[in-house]
Amino acid sequence: MQLSNETVNIGIKTLKEHYERTFCTRNRHETFGDTLDEQFVKAFIYKHQNVKFDHKIDKRDIEEIFKNLPNGKAIGTSGVSNEMLKYVDNKFLYY
């Protein structure tokens, strides 16, 4: 990419509308993938609703997963960043 001294004349209102259309309005609509994911989750829950899982989750496994999370990734819908999981005192996760 080359640096340029050219300027772009875009009004703030136009820029705001573009931002909202790109990152807000468009993302409000379900995609086919969202529908498939939702159907998969519902089917899984229905199939396993009376199944008792006896798999033990080791505290060290969780700590290792948190330790290896990459920094600088976007925060998801939970509002929790990888850095929050990595660097907070996670003692409350084990109770």
UniProtKB/TrEMBL annotation:
Protein's recorded name: Uncharacterized protein
Source organism (scientific name): Brachionus calyciflorus
